[in-house]
Amino acid sequence: MKVGKLASAALVVSLAFAASGCGTIRESQGYVVDQLLVSSVQPGIDNRQSVEATLGRPTFTSQFGEPTWYYVSSVTGRKPFVRTKIETHQVLAVKFDAAGNVVAADTTGIDQVVYLAPDGDKTPTLGRERSFFEDLFGNIGTVGAPGAGGGAGGRGPGG
Asked: Looking at the predicted structure, is the pLDDT value of residue 40 above 70?
C-alpha cells in the first residue's frame, strides 16, 4: 500500500511541476506606470521641466499640432506556444501650450488599441507590377538615352 501512495504522490508532484511550466509569461514594455506620479501632473501648475522631473523623458513627442508628450506602457502575456496578447495598455498624453505649461493630461487604455490584420504577404502599391527580370534589367539602355533625362544629351554647359 505504501508504494501505491508514494507513486500517486510522485504523480501529483510531477503533474504540478509540469503544469507550472504552462504559466503565463508577463513582460512590461515601454513606460512603467506609477499611478501616484501620473496623478501628480496637474494642468496649470506643471510645465515641461517639472513633468520631465516627475515622469522622466516621454516615449515619443508629437511632431505636428500642439506640443504633446506621450508615455506608452504595455503589459503583454503569453503562454508557451501561443501568440502574445496585450493584457494592459495605457497611453498618457501630456499636452503643453506655447509657453510650455501643461494644458491637459489624458490617459487612454486598451479600448483605443487598433488591431490590424494584414492581407496576405504582399503590400499593395500604386503603379504597375514588374517581374524579377524587369527589375533586374529594366534600366539597361535608358541611362543617357535621348529624352530619358540622362547626362549625355549634349545640352549642357559645354554643348
From this structure: yes
